Amino acid sequence: MKKATILLSLVVLFTVSCVKSELETQQVPNVSSTPCKQGILRSSGLSDKVDLEFTNKGVQITHYNFEVSCDFTTVNVTHTFTNGVLNITQKGSPNQADCVCHTDVSYTIEGISQDEVNVIFINGVQVYCYNDKNDKPQVYVSNVTFTECINTALYLPPAIFTVDFTSLGMNITHYLLNVNCAFDTVLVTQTFENGILTITEQGYPNNANCVCKANVSYTIGGISEKDIDKIVINGEVAWTANQQSENLFVGKWLTSDNNSHHNDTIHFTADMRIEDYFIFAHTTMYPASSYYFTYSLTENIIKITSHQPENAEFSETFQYILNGNLLTIKGFSNPFSLTAEARSDVHFTKI
């Protein structure tokens, strides 16, 4: 008999080498629920939790602090099960009141043994995954939070990504994620293979003809820092185990080479920003603080991104050679230029 307890955040959908499947939906009988714990106009922030236990009858599930409409009288539970994937849907009924509350829901899905189940979803959230190799739950995402659309003309983010490791996994924040203007949730999926944690973040729905930016934060559990070589978020390297190059980059560098229209000093900060170097004559209504530059490193390539108002971004990549206190960025003499001016390498010395 195996028992699992997993904390959830019901605004996230994620997968772990398991594939959802569709089959005939079946109603779950004998569902019990507690009366409303708290009736409020919006979510109280209570943490929901799922306990599940495999018994000789099937899988017994209790979902604590499940959010329902204040007028609910029952919780309808249906499920599909195929190819080892148990997909459960819970919904309070009726669902017409302009307020929500929380209830504890319990039920048993009979006729399913632990040996048959690879993964369990409840309302699109993975709550269980069996790993044949080590009998442990796989990596999971929880506690997803996000802001509304941000006015980038008035906001200067502290970094692109922050990754803080804890005893339970890691807390990640992605600043100024591009999302569709119609979004009301952020879906986060992840895969972990060969030491690389690959994360995809996407605002949903995405049916508007405009984009904006939002900050998103979440927790990755079931994994520790020693297991990871690299974290890639939406195709960008957010963290690497061997950050020697990143650490050597941080600081101020001086050049005497030709670098059209820019300063002679470039400052790479620890939060992956570039300061001091680029000079632009801002002739728009936006303040100078609305324009900023970030960088990321992948092997011997530096990617520099110019962030501008109205969610505009422009990126260029350059090959670099780093040798102690000497840095060469190839073809960097005229970055972000639309002219046909020939580009030459720029040599820097750390100061």
Can you put this structure into words, describing what you see?
With 351 residues, this protein is mainly β. It folds into 3 domains: 3-134, no CATH class; 142-240; 246-350, Lipocalin (Beta Barrel). Helices cover 2% and strands 50% of the residues. The chain contains 1 helix and 26 strands. The strands form 5 sheets. It has an 8-stranded antiparallel β-barrel with strand order 19-20-21-22-23-24-25-26. The model is unreliable at 5-22, 39-45 and 132-137 (pLDDT under 50).
**Estimated share of beta-strand residues:** over 45%
> What integer is the average pLDDT?
79
Shape designation: elongated
Helix content: under 10%
Strand order of the largest sheet: 19-20-21-22-23-24-25-26
Order of helices and strands: EEEEEEEEEEEEEEEEEEHEEEEEEEE
Residue stretches low in confidence (pLDDT < 50, at least 5 long) are 5-22, 39-45, 132-137
Structural class: mainly beta
Number of DSSP-assigned strands: 26
Integer count of domains: 3
Q: Major β-sheet, in short?
A: 8 strands, antiparallel, barrel
Distance between the termini: 63 Å
Radius of gyration: 25 Å
Number of helices, where a helix is a run of at least 4 consecutive DSSP H or I residues: 1
